[in-house]
């Protein structure tokens, strides 16, 4: 199979790795017989307009080169269209690629995976979360996690992972619970609960923040969202439980509960929701699982 495909590039991803990653990925695709063109926008809105134009023009695939922010932006262009998505993950977090068992920080390897999948006609339909008109692939965070993101976005130094770690420490010093009103489900079978929580995370996929498995049971093909609620706890308890999030073993702690639903509405004053690491806006937000919303190019031998 040959044809034109589109690289959707964030040159600033991974502290400059995005631009460099596009070259080996493009080389692997061209060596496999594909014509490759590159889309780089002047800003996120311009980049998305260009990606949507490529999809409308019939590109054979849209390949996001960058981190979760770039993959999430690409989702806005391809979700519901039938155009497959490829991911060359070279950002800081790369949780969307991790959930799909795709190469991370290996642009040439990712390019070869995409080429093999295209030649074999291999793509996997996966679920997405949707908030209004916005799609997301990994986790929607609120509460402690979103305040960490708020603080990290205000910081100008340091760069990368250390900025996030410092923001975590600062928010731990100011730890407080948030009064939530959460509606699980939809229609006559729905349930609304008022509760105090340190954080509430809604997972289409299992992880955020570069491998923190906050919703370790979340699957990309079950048509459901995993809602992880961390209830009131002390700083000491949170510090003790926090490292367990990387292994996904925190769910047995009595402060942690999980619900699996197709729809959830989060209400809380003064809290911003973040999905795929990008701000969605203040709560209230209603999140829906959309089964099979996008097709992703995967290695032909990955089991379904």
TrEMBL record:
Keyword annotations for this protein, in alphabetical order, are: ATP-binding, Kinase, Lipid biosynthesis, Lipid metabolism, Nucleotide-binding, Phospholipid biosynthesis, Phospholipid metabolism, Transferase
Question: Looking at the Swiss-Prot or TrEMBL record, what is one Pfam family this protein matches?
Answer: DAGK_cat
Q: Which cofactor does it need?
A: Mg(2+)
Q: Which GO terms describe its molecular function?
A: ATP binding; ATP-dependent diacylglycerol kinase activity
Q: Which ranges carry the DAGKc domain?
A: 1-135
GO CC terms in record: plasma membrane
Q: Which GO terms describe its biological process?
A: phospholipid biosynthetic process
Q: Family per UniProt? A: Belongs to the diacylglycerol/lipid kinase family.
**What name appears for this protein in its UniProt entry?**
Sphingosine kinase
Biological source species: Streptomyces carminius
């Amino acid at each position: 199979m040959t044809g034109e495909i589109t690289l959707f590039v964030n040159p600033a991803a991974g502290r400059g790795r995005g631009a460099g990653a596009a070259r080996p990925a493009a080389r692997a695709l061209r060596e496999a017989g594909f014509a490759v063109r590159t889309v780089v926008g002047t800003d996120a809105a311009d980049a998305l307009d260009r990606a949507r134009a490529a999809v409308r023009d019939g590109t054979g695939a849209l390949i996001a080169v960058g981190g979760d922010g770039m993959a999430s932006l690409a989702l806005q262009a391809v979700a519901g269209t039938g155009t497959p998505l490829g991911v060359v993950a070279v950002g800081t977090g790369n949780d969307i690629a991790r959930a799909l068992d795709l190469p991370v920080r290996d642009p040439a390897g990712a390019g070869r995976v995409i080429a093999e999948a295209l030649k074999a006609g291999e793509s996997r339909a996966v679920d997405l979360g949707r908030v209004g008109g916005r799609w997301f692939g990994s986790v929607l965070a609120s509460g402690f996690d979103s305040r960490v993101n708020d603080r990290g976005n205000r910081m100008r130094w340091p760069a990368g992972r250390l900025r996030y770690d410092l923001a975590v420490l600062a928010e731990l010093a100011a730890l407080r619970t948030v009064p939530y009103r959460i509606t699980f489900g939809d229609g006559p079978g729905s349930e609304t609960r008022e509760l105090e929580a340190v954080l509430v995370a809604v997972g289409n996929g299992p992880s955020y923040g570069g491998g923190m498995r906050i919703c370790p049971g979340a699957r990309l093909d079950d048509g459901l969202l995993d809602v992880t609620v961390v209830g009131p706890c002390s700083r000491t308890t949170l510090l003790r439980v926090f490292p367990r999030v990387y292994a996904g073993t925190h769910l047995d702690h009595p402060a942690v509960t999980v619900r699996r639903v197709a729809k959830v509405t989060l209400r809380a004053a003064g809290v911003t929701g973040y999905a795929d690491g990008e701000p969605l806006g203040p709560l209230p937000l209603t999140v829906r699982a959309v089964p099979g919303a996008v097709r992703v190019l995967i290695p032909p031998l990955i089991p379904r």
